[in-house]
TrEMBL record:
A divalent metal cation 1 binds at residues 98, 109, 236. Monomer. It comes from Eikenella corrodens CC92I. The lineage of its organism: Bacteria, Pseudomonadati, Pseudomonadota, Betaproteobacteria, Neisseriales. This is Methionine aminopeptidase. Belongs to the peptidase M24A family. Methionine aminopeptidase type 1 subfamily.
């Protein structure tokens, strides 16, 4: 599958879908608090996509085995693809919510970290460094740069802070399909990999572990956890390569911040 360069019309649709994804993340954040279950958050996301935004949650029934819920909720040592359940969140938890809305044949995909009550300084540092890692990757995006430049930038921030980068999961192209080429890894060497061109749209979504990078996948076929059970964090934005640099398509409408 080749990398798809989006037309101006497709780029405009992807801007709209990116805004919808960011709006959904703004919305759900108001409900993250001690005592709520991730199943309850999942139902709120589902209803918001369908009844308010007029779209559909792309994760629902995606893949093999089919993903059973409408968003991913990854708590504490869960790296990614956490399946919402009936366990209440508790004070001190950290949570990634990863949503993808499908509408009019296009996809909008983004994730954020949320804090439950009062968290430890160590957990907050991991969240902050992971966001810095993502932004470092985003900031090198421009025509003529390479995917290796993105991975290198993400990796330097994380490893210089004493953390590790998950290598088995990565960002991806997105558009009419949920997952398109290219794969966007969050480690690597500058000057390697495909060269960025205007009209490319992909996600940058580093998964950063407090301990070692090693992981295991649970028997449900989806949930990915740190092998040493130390915390993991992730942020995700959709990025468009413009003629002069980049445009983040999933900035929060509420705060205006990435």
């Amino acid at each position: 599958m080749a990398i798809i360069i989006k037309t101006p019309e497709e780029i405009q649709k992807m801007r709209e879908l990116g805004r919808l994804a960011a709006e959904a993340l703004d919305y759900i954040g108001d409900f993250v608090k001690p005592g709520v279950t991730t199943n309850e958050l999942n139902q709120l996301v589902h209803d918001y996509h369908v009844n308010v935004q007029g779209g559909y949650p792309a994760p629902l029934h995606y893949g093999n085995p089919p993903f059973p819920k409408s968003c991913c909720t990854s708590v504490n040592h869960v790296i990614c693809h956490g399946i919402p359940d009936d366990k209440p969140l508790k004070n001190g938890d950290i949570l990634n919510i990863d949503i993808t809305i499908k509408k009019d044949g296009f996809h909008g995909d983004s994730s954020r970290m949320y804090t439950v009550g009062t968290i430890s300084p160590q957990a907050q540092r991991l969240i902050d460094i992971t966001h810095q890692s993502m932004m470092a990757g985003i900031e090198v995006v421009k025509p003529g740069a390479t995917l290796g430049d993105i991975g290198y930038a993400c990796q330097q921030i994380a490893e210089n802070a004493g953390y590790s980068v998950v290598q088995e999961f990565c960002g991806h192209g997105i558009g009419r399909s949920f997952h398109e080429d290219p794969q966007v890894v969050h480690y690597g060497k500058r000057g390697t990999g495909p060269v960025l061109q205007p009209g490319m749209i992909f996600t940058i979504e580093p998964m950063i572990n407090q301990g070692k990078r090693h992981l295991r996948i649970l028997e449900d076929g989806w949930t990915v956890v740190t092998k040493d059970r130390k915390l993991s964090a992730q942020w995700e934005h959709e990025v468009l390569v413009t003629d002069t640099g980049y445009e983040i398509l999933t900035i929060s409408p509420r705060t205006g911040r990435p």
